[in-house]
Design goal:
alpha/beta, six-stranded mixed β-barrel, 5 helices, about 25% helix
């Protein structure tokens, strides 16, 4: 099912940003907020895992029901999970599009990767303590 993905900052993300390898940061940034009606159409409940993908990549997130999200859209907090699927195209501005990106969402049961696993998948190195 296609959605428009928007990203942005959240309070829980900001509270845990000092330790990007912490469980709190991972929990705050690995969510996909979806309108309850869209969740019903997808056949999923709060806490279900969904695969969010587009031409840039795919990532598994935890679905969170939110009436604050407009139907047909999703919200993903900025961070390593959103960055995994944000297109690198910047339209010569140096800033990628963080709003209104078309994505496909499929329910699934694949586990959510840790932040370190995501970074390593992209060829990076785990955060040092």
């Amino acid at each position: 099912m296609k959605f428009l993905m928007n990203t942005g900052r959240t309070v829980p993300q900001g509270e845990s940003v000092e330790r990007k390898d912490s469980p709190e940061y991972e929990k705050a940034t690995s969510v996909c907020m979806i309108h309850p009606v869209d969740m019903m159409v997808l056949g999923i409940e709060d806490g279900a895992r969904v695969c969010v993908k587009n031409k840039s990549g795919e990532v598994v997130l935890v679905a969170v029901s939110s009436e604050a999200i407009e139907q047909g859209t999703i919200f993903v907090p900025l961070g390593p999970y959103a960055n995994h699927i944000i297109d690198s195209e910047t339209h010569c501005t140096g800033m990628p599009d963080f709003k209104s990106m078309t994505v496909d969402i499929e329910p699934g049961d694949t586990p959510v990767m840790t932040v370190s696993e995501l970074i390593e998948k992209l060829g990076g190195v785990r955060y040092a303590h």
